[in-house]
Amino acid sequence: MTQDRRNRAWYGKLDKDGFIHRSWMKNQGYPDHVFDGRPVIGICNTWSEFTPCNSGLRELADYVKRGVWEAGGFPVEFPVMSTGETQMKPTAMLFRNLLSMDVEECIRAYGMDGVVLLGGCDKTTPGQIMGAASVDLPTIVVSAGPMLNGKWQGRDIGSGTDVWKFSEAVRAGEMSLADFMAAESGMSRSRGVCMTMGTASTMSSLVEAMGLCLPMNGTLPAVDARRQALAHLSGRRIVAMVNEDLRLSKVLTRAAFENAILANAAVGGSTNAVVHLLAIAGRVGVDLSLADFELGSDVPLLVNCMPSGKYLMEDFCYAGGMPAVLKELAPLLRPSLTVTGTDISAYAEGATCWNRDVIRPFAEPLKPAAGIRVLRGNLAPEGAIVKPSAATPELLEHEGPAHVFDSIEDLKANIDRDDLPVTPETVLVLKGCGPKGYPGMPEVGNMPIPAALVRRGVRDMIRVSDARMSGTAFGTVILHVSPEAQAGGPLALVRTGDRVRVSAARGELALLVDDAELARRRAAWRPDPPAYDRGYAKLYVDHVLQAHRGADLDFLVGKDTRPVTRESH
Ligand code: FES
Questions:
Q1: Is the CB of 122 under 6 A from ligand 1?
Q2: From the CA of 409, how far away is ligand 1's center (Å)?
Q3: Which residues lie below 8 Å from residue 510, measured CB to CB, with a gap of 6+?
Q4: Is residue 534 included in any domain, yes or no?
Q5: How far is CA 196 from the centre of its chain?
Q6: Nearest CA to ligand 1 atom 1
Q7: Residue 49 DSSP SS3
Q8: What is the pLDDT along the chain (569 residues), one digit of tens a residue?
Q9: Which helix (H) or strand (E) holds 99?
């Protein structure tokens, strides 16, 4: 068995190459016997002080190592690029694919037999899984875990969700700037990821629904000692997975993706899950399309967490976490192998819900039919999405005149103009914020409500763009319009005053302009000149796929599991 292990090609050779691989590792104090062929477990760490959500991962890696040693493996931690969602410009999404390349090439180039992915902040989880899927070794995820509930002026406040609300309240003159500034410290008061059901907690919850981690990984708070124990157990489990040859592709089947889509609806998960699941599926060879997300459209909202509900991740964890949700979804779940070697149904067996206001029974949901809706029409031939659980129900069937912003700069310069010609019926349209246009498809789709309307008490209106929005955001926001404006999609042709029709029930996003007029506009249209002429950003813009294909780079789709045979010496 040991002769078959991948690490033997690095550490098992009794020649100059083996000497070099072992000798330099020994400068860290490793004795001879750890190179005896035992499973070498890479611990892929996205710890960074620029990624505060992942700031606990350096310590958490030590608990993974305990488990690996205990199970007879040899743990080796390595850093990869870390994408700090709140810190990177122009947007962390620009770098998700670069992180995935870093992860993929490190796993392939180093002599490991299995890998533990330590991620958390939004793009780190999908970026790591995308990279690992393209090498396909035994892989297990250990997430950073959410921050403790935010606390301010005697009440709970949630990452992101309350920032948007406070910001609007300041603009409406309902909140002082001093209070706004004071809320900062109470919002983020422990290490961990956003404690709303934002993208990070969505992805860690879906990772659990896909069976890529041990039960409760999705929700245990970052500072809960049980997360350290879970990291220890995950270290033990990855060694067994190497011995069982339980590779990522055996877990990441079509059934796992379908379970993720069902779970995303039940937890009120982020719209960002769509681009991430599509990109991961592309790496592992599962034929997933935007249309498959309609599978979740009739699934009710069960988890009462911001932004779709009122509680936070700490409450979700104490109420029973993902196992309790999977128990509610059990009749819908597809049989699917997990990293434990058992079916996903085993995660739900024995689960108990301890708070029925936080995790609702399937028959008494928070909202019916909460899954992400896919919209199509002459404004989005390849699709767009909306999240009904975070939207205003009356606006999901709407027709109104467009007010167009040609760029994010146009939006920022004009949205608060007192004379902006908009009414609550206006459809705000933002162009130039897709994968190629921004570039990087930022989270600006939930554009602010014009100040003049905020002062009149308007808190939601239809917004349409080729951008994404934060998983912590809310509103009737139509996102990921594909193809994007910069790629010549019909979004590029919309003009202020055109009428736009939205019907979530019919899955429609229509621009009510006749074909002859659109043809005239297309003949006159030119893309913006490229913003970058060198470096990674140019590579990204030249190769990024559109949102309906997950915004991966075209040359990264798929995997390469061939052994690396050449040496550097
Ligand atoms: Fe990192 Fe929300 S900003 S998880």
A1: yes
A2: 24
A3: 377, 378, 379, 500, 501, 502
A4: no
A5: 13
A6: 121
A7: coil
A8: 444 899 999 999 999 999 999 999 999 999 999 999 999 999 999 999 999 999 999 999 999 999 999 999 999 999 999 999 999 999 999 999 999 999 999 999 999 999 999 999 999 999 999 999 999 999 999 999 999 999 999 999 999 889 988 988 998 889 999 999 999 999 999 999 999 999 999 999 999 999 999 999 999 999 999 999 999 999 999 999 999 999 999 999 999 999 999 999 999 999 999 999 999 999 999 999 999 999 999 999 999 999 999 999 999 999 999 999 999 999 999 999 999 999 999 999 989 999 999 999 999 999 998 899 999 999 999 999 999 888 999 999 999 999 999 999 999 999 999 999 999 999 999 999 999 999 999 999 999 999 999 989 999 999 999 999 988 888 999 999 999 999 999 999 999 999 999 999 999 999 999 999 999 999 999 999 988 999 999 999 999 999 999 999 999 999 999 999 899 88
A9: helix 93-109
404 and 513 part of one domain:
yes
> Is 538 inside any structural domain?
no
Complete DSSP assignment for 443-461: S--SPPPPHHHHTTT----
Domain annotation covers residue 169: yes
Candidate of 83, 95, 121 to mutate for ligand 1, largest count of ligand atoms within 8 Å of Cβ: 121
The answer to whether the CB of 292 is under 6 A from ligand 1 is no
Which of these three, 315, 332, 348, is where a domain ends?
A: 348
Cβ 121 under 6 angstroms from ligand 1: yes
Note whether 126 and 177 are same-domain residues.
Answer: no
Closest to 85 (Cα-Cα) out of 198, 208, 227, 218 = 198
Range of the domain at 169: 150-188
C-beta atoms surrounding 559 within 10 Å: 18
Same domain assignment for residues 397 and 489 = yes
Residues 511 and 456 placed together within one structural domain of the fold? yes
Residue nearest to atom 2 of ligand 1 (CA): 194
Number of domains, the chain: 3
